[in-house]
Amino acid sequence: MMTNGLLYVVATPIGNLGDITLRALEVLKSVDAIAAEDTRHTSGLLSHFGISKKLIAVHEHNEHQSAEKLLMQLNAGENIALVTDAGTPGISDPGAVVVDFVRKAGIKVVPIPGVSAVITALSASGIAQNGFLFHGFLPASGAARRKALDALKAQAVTLVFYEAPHRIVESIVDMTNVLGAERRITIARELTKTFETIHRCNLADAEAWLQADSNQQRGEFVLLVEAAAIKDADEISEDTLRILKLLLADLPLKQAVKLATEITAEKKNVLYELALKLKTDQ
Fold first, then answer.
1. What CATH number has the domain bearing residue 167?
2. At what angle do helices 96-104 and 63-75 cross, to 10 degrees?
3. pTM, whole model, 2 decimals?
4. pLDDT at 268
5. Phi, psi of 95 (to 5 degrees)
6. Are 14 and 111 contained in the same domain?
7. CA nearest neighbour of 34 among 71, 95, 83
8. Are strands 184-189 and 221-225 parallel, antiparallel or unpaired?
9. Residue 155 belongs to a domain
10. Whether residue 240 sits in one domain with residue 205
11. Is the pLDDT of residue 129 over 80?
12. DSSP-assigned beta bridge partners for residue 137
């Protein structure tokens, strides 16, 4: 009986080729074919490491059709590596559709971890807040972008975005207007590359910093915006605080917060942080 092949999801460098893992190289050398976002780009990567493999184009415009072809090859027993131009497939890059399709067909998917621009930027930012929310790319149009930011502005976690160079200034302006000029932002560009830059400032100063040097508007960006400020207990109404305390006395924290949110219409993240503080104080 023929055994199905494996789909390997392989992270590749976002700039510095030295960041590729030994395991990734082993997989790329051993598979029968490599599904790539841009076959020309991946050819350069493979050539650098002396690897020659059949390449299959899998990009955002043909991902559904390519998934069906890849499934046929996997069912025939071939092992295939899935890569994008840089970083981890499926993280604001093609790949998720293929992975979902082959998993539903019962094919084993094996992740080969490595570089991710999100984690790279976070690790060098010095941000020590309660987790992060990775949004990826904001909408290209101004109105849609501002609407998306408005929906995120109350989040009590670090907000992480990708942005393209031709939209970086207008996106920063919208972030300043919607999220608040006093919030801090870390602008990380060209990570792991020759002109890598990691700059921290308030949103109020970010546009001027970008405009002062046009070179800082080039490359690919990861933007990390600090979390929304959490209300202190003295900013919460006495009724809301009383309700939360009563619920916490008899219910687990998450359930108490859920009910308090429904009763008071206060934001869930605000009550959750307050509940944690009340539990700690006890």
1. 3.30.950.10
2. 40
3. 0.81
4. 79
5. 140, -40
6. yes
7. 83
8. antiparallel
9. yes
10. no
11. no
12. 162
Q: How far apart are CA 260 and CA 271, in angstroms?
A: 8
Amino acid identity, position 60: E
Token readout for 279 is: 């539990």
**Whether 98 and 156 share a structural domain:** no
Residue of 85 and 238 predicted with greater confidence: 85
Which of 205, 225, 245 corresponds to the end of one domain? 225
Q: Residue 253: which domain range?
A: 233-281
For residues 240 and 244, what is the distance between their CA atoms, to the nearest angstrom?
6
Q: Are 79 and 31 in contact (CB under 8 A)?
A: yes
State the Cα–Cα distance between residues 222 and 162, nearest whole angstrom.
5
In whole angstroms, what is the distance from residue 152 CA to residue 174 CA? 13
Q: Return d(Cα 196, Cα 94) in angstroms, integer.
A: 25
Strand 7-10's sheet: what is its strand order? 54-57, 33-36, 80-83, 7-10, 109-112
Cβ–Cβ under 8 Å, residues 13 and 192: yes
Q: Is-contact 229 270, C-beta < 8 A?
A: no
Residues 137 and 204 in one domain: yes
Q: Which distant-in-sequence residues (6+ apart) come within 8 Å of 164 by Cβ?
A: 137, 220, 221
Question: Domain tally for the chain?
Answer: 3
pLDDT in tens, 174-202: 999 999 999 999 999 999 999 999 999 99
| Cα distance between residue 88 and residue 11, in whole Å | 4
CA dihedral 268, 124, 220, 173 (to 10 degrees): 50
Q: Can you tell me the distance from the alpha carbon of 171 to that of 141, in angstroms, rounded to the nearest whole number? A: 10
